[in-house]
Design goal:
The protein has 26 helices and 21 strands. It is globular and about 70 Å long.
């Protein structure tokens, strides 16, 4: 059976983050707090009505035992039989993979009235945190033994791999990972139990779960029913197991109680979850790189790819279904990046960071001992980033080719495969060893699953033609496979035309045979992959050196900032368990504009259209006209609340996080941020940082009245009328 992690966390309290314990402010201006910091917060004064032990108890069961990490999102157990609630968009890929044109669960929704009707949520696994351990000393000792600073990152990666391997060999049911909490300072080993059998239980139609589409994505006011119910299954003995009819529902230590009465404006709320990456402690140059290079390049490319896929899908419904999950992901990132660019510009965040660093330098120079140790620190950081700026978009171009063009991705894989096959099996990289051969071939099959040569060709052309405009790219050897520095749009176009018409890799059926007998020599794709691969190797080596230097420099940067500010900091989010809290609260995004924090069913109907992003399910309009709200009416609003916004500090990965009231009861599910709050990953502000969730009353109303899934309400222990 899955074991308690409470006794482990008790020692985690003592061992981890000793340097961030002294001066955490009682009332935070921001924060995604690690569990070790919860008892240092004055949550009672903030509005919490339960004891801290009920929220987090190192010696017993508490709310955190109901939390689950599901494939990059958060979920929470809401019944004794492993029922979980998360976001519709977190289950989107699994629903899409289960759908066909005949049984389109994505468009029509999915409901399993009995357990035997629940279907596999392919691609989703659930991870439950079992224990933590501070491994900073072990990691840093290995790093400090590196005979060259440029090998520091490599030494850290090697030691992390060793620790993970050792943990997983001790207990094969454990999946381990090591997370860097502060760059170059602290590292924590996390142990997880992984549930491999996750099934779909109830998912609303896309017109509810994605109501507003990309028009409303990262927008408030919002009217989206972004929720889904899944169930976790294990083997009869309680151990993790792949899908089997013999598996049984997982019995969690703790599950959340639903409060069908919802919340009101200014109510205290808190969120537990697994936020992704934030970058609040980075120097000004990091933000400058984001603002000038990464964000504009990626957002423009993603917008173009979205248009391409949607245009192809207009006349090909099967392709549109296959590609729907990718398009949704592209759209989400593209709009997020545009929001970040707007926030960086509006706040003048780069200049603000630079001004802060000027003052920091003055502080360093004001004290002899600090000047001796840190006098050149900011210049040294600047030198590292100067090198990164010289590489510019070159690494991004290579990354985008590998991520979004099947031909280049497989060509690069084949070139590396041929090299590795020249080595004895034991000396090859793990993915190319004979024991993992089936996994490799399955990976290749999966890569070609959605391969459309005409679309692939368009994407490759776009990425490479764009790259001809970048000085740092044309100044490299990236285009030597065409004609080096003399490459033109015309010569590049001619090469790509030949590539997609003559390459052996253009036919998916041939590719597995090529990997069975790796003797192909003469193919334009191999020339291209070898050429770009050699450039990538050079850039990877440069990046290793930069990261190794920054590993030391940013540790010193944080040390001196703590002294200067006379306070300590919360580590950036990194997909580990965190708490954030705040209040149901509206905001003013612009002059003379105020947004209240609760939307209603009336707004859904008012926005509703016959098609498009605001396609309105006829059943919803019918129920609204009848005022058939059941027990889920808000008396003040005289309507069913749909979405709520609140001033917590959230990020990617908090999708699906439970929104809990002062008594620790589930009153909503977090799914987004306002457009102005996309900048949260870099900086948080009470003025504009608002997170968005679906109100539990709308979840229950849709589930019962629209979905007819009273069985869900019965399992949740909610009165059904």
């Amino acid at each position: 059976m899955f074991t308690s992690h409470s006794r482990f966390i008790k020692y985690f309290f003592i061992l981890v983050f000793p340097f961030i314990t002294a001066m955490i402010p009682t009332v935070p201006d921001e924060g995604m707090y690690p569990l070790s910091e919860i008892r240092k917060l004055d949550l009672k004064s903030a509005g919490l009505k339960i004891s801290i032990d009920e929220l987090y108890n190192p010696d017993g069961t508490s709310l955190i035992d109901a939390l689950v990490n599901i494939s990059g999102c958060t979920a929470s157990f809401v019944s004794a039989d492993g029922l979980m609630i998360t976001n519709h968009h977190c289950s989107f890929g699994a629903v899409q993979r289960a759908s066909t044109l005949e049984n389109n669960y994505l468009e029509n929704g999915f409901s399993a009235p009995t357990r035997d009707k629940e279907i596999p949520a392919e691609g989703i696994t659930a991870r439950i945190t079992v224990s933590y351990e501070d491994v900073s000393k072990i990691i840093l000792e290995a790093a400090n033994k590196a005979d060259d600073i440029t090998k520091r990152t490599e030494a850290i990666s090697k030691k992390i791999s060793e620790l993970i391997k050792a943990e997983e060999e001790k207990d094969p049911s454990i999946k381990a990972s090591v997370s860097e909490m502060f760059t170059g300072q602290s590292y924590v080993l996390f142990r997880y139990k992984t549930i491999n059998d996750v099934r779909l239980v109830y998912v609303p139609p896309r017109s509810i779960g994605e109501f507003g589409g990309e028009s409303d994505n990262w927008v408030w006011p919002r009217h989206t029913g972004d929720f889904a119910f899944l169930r976790a299954y294990v083997a009869p003995d309680g151990s993790p197991a792949k899908y089997s009819e013999d598996n049984v529902p997982f019995q969690p230590k703790k599950y959340l109680k639903i409060n069908p009465n919802g919340v009101d404006e200014e109510d205290f709320v808190f969120i537990l979850g697994y936020p992704g990456r934030t970058y609040k402690h980075q120097p000004s140059q990091f933000l400058q790189y984001q603002e000038n290079i990464l964000l504009p390049y990626v957002s423009e490319l993603y917008a173009w790819m979205m248009d391409l896929h949607e245009e192809v899908g207009k006349n090909d419904p099967e392709y549109a279904l296959e590609i729907s999950s990718l398009v949704k992901s592209l759209a989400n990132t593209e709009k997020n990046y545009r929001g970040k660019l707007q926030g960086l510009s509006r706040l003048g965040l780069v200049q603000s960071k630079k001004d802060e660093e000027i003052e920091l330098q003055k502080y360093i120079e004001s004290k002899t001992e600090l000047k001796s140790k840190y006098g050149n620190l900011l210049n040294d950081i600047n030198d590292v980033y100067k090198d990164r700026f010289e590489s510019g978009k070159l690494p991004l171009v290579i990354q985008m080719l590998s991520r979004f063009t099947t031909m280049y991705r497989v060509g690069d894989l084949y070139v590396n495969y041929k090299k590795e096959m020249q080595l004895p099996d034991a000396e090859r990289r793990s993915s190319f060893q004979e024991k993992n051969r089936k996994t490799l071939l399955d990976q290749i099959t999966a890569i070609y699953q959605d391969f459309r040569p005409e679309v692939d060709k368009e994407i490759m052309m776009k990425i490479l033609v764009d790259a001809l405009r970048f000085k740092e790219v044309t100044g490299s050897k990236l285009f030597d496979f065409v004609d080096g520095s003399k490459t033109t749009n015309e010569s590049l176009s001619a090469f790509i035309d030949e590539l997609y018409s003559s390459s052996e890799f253009n036919d998916a059926e041939n590719v597995l045979a090529l990997f069975e007998s790796p003797d192909l020599e003469d193919d334009p794709l191999l020339d291209m992959a070898a050429c770009i691969g050699s450039v990538k190797d050079v850039e990877d080596e440069k990046n290793k050196i930069r990261e190794s230097k920054l590993n030391l420099l940013l540790a010193e940067f944080m040390d001196v900032k703590k002294m200067w500010k006379e306070k300590l900091f919360i580590p950036d989010a990194n997909s580990t368990l965190r708490l954030t809290y705040g209040y149901i609260r509206g905001y003013a995004p612009a002059d003379a504009v105020y947004y209240s924090p609760i939307t209603t069913l009336k707004g859904v109907v008012e926005k509703g259209k016959d098609s498009g992003d605001y396609q309105l399910l006829p059943k919803i309009k019918e129920l609204y006209n009848k005022k058939d709200f059941g027990i889920f009416t808000d008396e003040k609003l005289n309507d069913v609340p749909v979405a709520i916004c609140y001033n917590t500090d959230t990020s990617g990965g908090n999708s699906g996080s439970p929104i809990l009231n002062a008594y620790g009861e589930l009153i909503g599910v977090n799914f987004d941020r306002a457009f102005e709050a996309t900048i949260n990953d870099f900086a948080w502000s009470e003025v504009y940082s608002r997170s968005i969730g679906v109100d539990i009353r709308y979840v229950l109303w849709v589930t019962q009245k629209v979905g007819g899934a009273d069985y869900i309400l019965n399992e949740l222990g909610v009165e059904s009328k």
